[in-house]
Amino acid sequence: MREGGRRMYATLQQHGQPPAHRTAARRARPGAGGSRAEQVLALQRAAGNRAVTALLTDLRAPASSPGTTDGRGLEDEGPTDDRTTGALVGGGLGALVGGVVGGPVGALVGGLGGALLGGTIGELMDAASQPLPVALRNGPGHRPIDEPATVGMSIDIALTSSTGVDADMASVEDSEQVSASLRHTGSYTSVPPGRSNNSGYMPGYPIPPDRHGEPRARVIDLADNHGGDGTMDREQLDTYRVPSAGIGETVVPASGYLIRRIITVSGTTVTFRLQKSPQAVTVNGFTTTAGPSPTQWEDVVVRP
To answer: What is the largest CA-CA distance in the chain?
Structure first.
């Protein structure tokens, strides 16, 4: 054994090399008996498989799936984690190459390093195969909200998947990001800028309809006591994450929309319009391009 190999072997012993490793290393020393191939295989079993076992233990912990604020529980889609495949391949190759190049100690280190490197490669391959959202569609289905306390519009929402299959978005978690109110005009200038209620993270398929509402009493008050007609805007985009693939909070491309509230007064009649239009936006530090859906709206006669 080369002098460098002796020093590395002694270091491993000093730092508490597991008994199985010491036994395998002794068996694999020149003169200990057995062919070169048998020595390499013995070291691979002691080092590579031990590293694989440790990695598999780490992978047993489930990805975190915090609850959502809209009352829907998260569904467990059980995504496949291919990192174990990378670890097995990397461990075997690392032990084989290490055994040929560096002798028994090289096989030990190669097995451990190869397993870790292989695990990283497997993780990258898993992320690359993950379906991802490429746009957020609004509509075409939408309907008025005409309730005793609230007026506005409910509109259907869907993530467009990179695979072309909407249902594949069940493997990602989606959330809306809505800005504070902007560009108040007319009667709405009497209303200070305010935050909107945003959804928490939920499964990306199916997504419940997006509700945009205004208190009926406030619409009538603005129309009668603060100048009549008026408008107020908010901007909206979506973010997603995939904990199982190691993808953190990321903006959805082509998910930007402008939400506009419009009060119109004609005589004693008060009409409220909720309108959504595609627009490039920046919200909460995220920036995206305009969504693919056309402008859509609903009119509600608040008072005839």
So the answer is: 105
